[in-house]
Amino acid sequence: MIATNGSCPKPADRLSFFDTRKETPPMKLNRKMLATKPSGIRKIGQLARQHEGCIALSIGEPDLDAPESVRSNISKAILAGDTHYPPNPGIPALRRELAHSVSQRFHADYTAENTLITIGSTEALASALFAILNPGDEVIVPIPSFGLYQPQIEMAGGVYVPMDISGSDYQVTADQLAALITDRTAAILFASPNNPTGTIQGKSALEAIKAAALAHDLYIIDDSVYDQLVYIPEFPTLMGDPELRDRLIYVNAFSKTYAMTGVRIGYALADLPVMEQMIKVHSFLVVSAPGFVQTGCLSITDIANSESVRLYQSRLTMVMQALDAIGLPYPEPRGAFYIFPDISQFGIPDETFCTRLIEEAGLALVPSSCFGVPDHVRISFCYDTNILEAGMKRLASFVYTLRNA
């Protein structure tokens, strides 16, 4: 077992780590927000920082730098005085560039008017949900999935309907959808590649989503923030399908593709009647994304990310080899930079596994309960190879201890 510096929390502290109950506030507050748990991923980060020397493989934060040209252009734009209000939906040149790039990639015909520049993909998703949902509308979300979907759906007045696809090789099926669709279902929201598994929805899964959307008049929200970090030759997608043009909302960002998580520029594309409502929501929520940052991102779609994809793929290979040696099974990632090993063999909750892993081995991973399912942990492999190797050694030592307890 690997010892770490820093004191271990008492058992009571361990139990309270994921407990979000607070004292009753003296005045009335939003009931939805009171019932919403803070991010479990951030809580893991907080606990890791309490343990000196802890290796954190818990955040999807690439260790690469944003492209030098983008950084330089942002600096030039702000020094040139680009500090005034830009148009609400984004500067026209960047909207045109993104519409052209997406249309080229997916053989579609989007224009600047179909395009919205947002504060990261998070705000793009929020703008979409607030634009399409009426109170009580249901949104089906295949899980495991990123934790922000549920609170955003509920904040927009909708009802979150999780659909566990872990038993179908992490693929959506027509039967699963049919079992959950009601007369209140308004949308299906999914991510491919997926966070936390790195899996990609195949052609049959996408056909099931398409058929359900057409048969029941549903929107499809396609969270594609990782769709340029893919490790297979052909990437199935619904983008560009003319039958879905009126109901498909495409969401993306520069954050993961170009290692620009802190720059906070995302974008969305949708049919004009939907986009007009999204622009309203966006303008009321944030007014606009910063103009000088948008200016600095012009021509970003000319920057290839093939080297970073090859780097992440080599890191993935190393992590998979380590997990195979440790004896932890996982669905093989086809994209993104996460892997999702199964820890059910140890018979302890994933939250307990992760807190003990920090305390006893000095390694921070994310429990799968943060993504809606039990018995797994998420490992981010967007870190330097030396850090990943050290982390895998600590994981191996911890697993050895559990098996020999």
Task: Describe the overall structure.
- With 405 residues, the protein is of the alpha/beta class.
- It has two domains: 11-65 and 305-403, Aspartate Aminotransferase, domain 1 (Alpha-Beta Complex), CATH 3.90.1150.10; 84-302, Type I PLP-dependent aspartate aminotransferase-like (Major domain) (Aspartate Aminotransferase, domain 2, 3-Layer(aba) Sandwich), CATH 3.40.640.
- Helix content is 40%, strand content 12%.
- Helix 7 (149-155) links the parallel strand 3 (138-143) and strand 4.
- The protein is globular, with a radius of gyration of 21 Å.
Number of strands: 12
Q: What's the CATH topology name of the largest domain?
A: Aspartate Aminotransferase, domain 2
CATH class of the largest domain: Alpha Beta
Q: How would you name the oligomeric state of the polypeptide chains in this document?
A: single chain
What strand order characterises the main sheet? 2-8-7-6-5-3-4
Structural class: alpha/beta
